[in-house]
Amino acid sequence: MNYQNEVHFTPMKAYSPYHSPYDPCPPLKIKYYSTPPQLYMHFQPPNLEQFPPHEALMRGTLWKPLYDYYDNPYKKGIHGHG
């Protein structure tokens, strides 16, 4: 069973918070948050593909399906904002 073919989630979510007319700072119209892949796994499947040990230390996980690259949505040009 290949876990990569079963991924049906979006790692980056967005929402529009309430903005008071009395907020002292200019508001962010859209706020983003990330959801890690382990939230969408019921149990850790056996025989998951692994990173080599040195690469696993740099990525923060041993298992490739649990690696989640973080892309800053507030950088200029991403999602049409900035």
UniProtKB/TrEMBL annotation:
Protein name per its UniProtKB record: CotJA
Organism: Bacillus infantis NRRL B-14911
Lineage: Bacteria, Bacillati, Bacillota, Bacilli, Bacillales
